[in-house]
């Protein structure tokens, strides 16, 4: 599975990347809400104890309202990592992996190739090529 993911990243196929970006952006808000609402409180409960600032390492000051208060919110960092991993996994397993399987089937001849491009597409390609050759 990781080999397939590495090949996807290294291949640089623009369509795969565009689909991944669009779906990832749409799905990111769902994953962010889930991790912020469900997982971050659990992380704070497990690692942070209690008080006003669970899940935070206080470096200076005692309360967030203190003028010299400085803290590292490690629960937010763990939350961001989980958000990234969940989004990447969903994009890979729901979009990239099925597309790779379909490409393998087509290469073996088990799936029919997509239909030939429409006449309009062929004309647009000819116009594009003519414009490129003119320059």
Features:
135 residues; two-stranded antiparallel ribbon; 2 strands; Non-ribosomal Peptide Synthetase Peptidyl Carrier Protein, Chain A; elongated; mainly alpha; single chain
Domains counted in the coordinates: how many? 1
Estimated share of beta-strand residues = 5-15%
- With strands numbered from the N-terminus, the spatial order across the biggest sheet is 1-2
End-to-end Cα distance: 45 Å
CATH class: Mainly Alpha
Low-confidence stretches: none
Shape, principal axes of CA atoms: elongated
Counted by DSSP, the helix tally is 4
Rounded radius of gyration (Å): 24 Å
What share of residues is helical?
over 70%
User: N-to-C SSE series?
Assistant: HHEEHH
Which structural class do you get from the secondary structure elements?
Answer: mainly alpha
The biggest beta sheet is recorded as: 2 strands, antiparallel
Whole-number average pLDDT? 76
Describe the structure.
The longest helix has 35 residues. The protein is 71% helix and 5% strand. The model has no long low-confidence stretch (mean pLDDT 76). The protein has a single domain, classed as Large-conductance mechanosensitive channel, MscL, domain 1 (Non-ribosomal Peptide Synthetase Peptidyl Carrier Protein, Chain A), CATH 1.10.1200. With 135 residues, the protein is mostly helical.
């Amino acid at each position: 599975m990781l080999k397939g993911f590495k090949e996807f990243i290294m291949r640089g196929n623009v369509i795969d990347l565009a689909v991944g970006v669009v779906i990832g952006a749409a799905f990111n808000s769902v994953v962010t809400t889930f991790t912020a609402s469900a997982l971050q409180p659990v992380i704070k409960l497990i690692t942070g104890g209690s008080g006003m600032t669970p899940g935070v390492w206080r470096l200076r000051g005692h309360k967030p309202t203190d003028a010299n208060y400085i803290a590292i919110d490690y629960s937010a960092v763990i939350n961001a990592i989980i958000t990234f991993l969940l989004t990447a996994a969903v994009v890979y397993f729901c979009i990239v992996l099925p597309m790779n399987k379909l490409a393998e089937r087509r290469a073996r001849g088990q799936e029919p190739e997509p239909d030939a491009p429409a006449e309009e597409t062929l004309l647009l390609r000819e116009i594009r090529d003519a414009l490129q050759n003119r320059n």
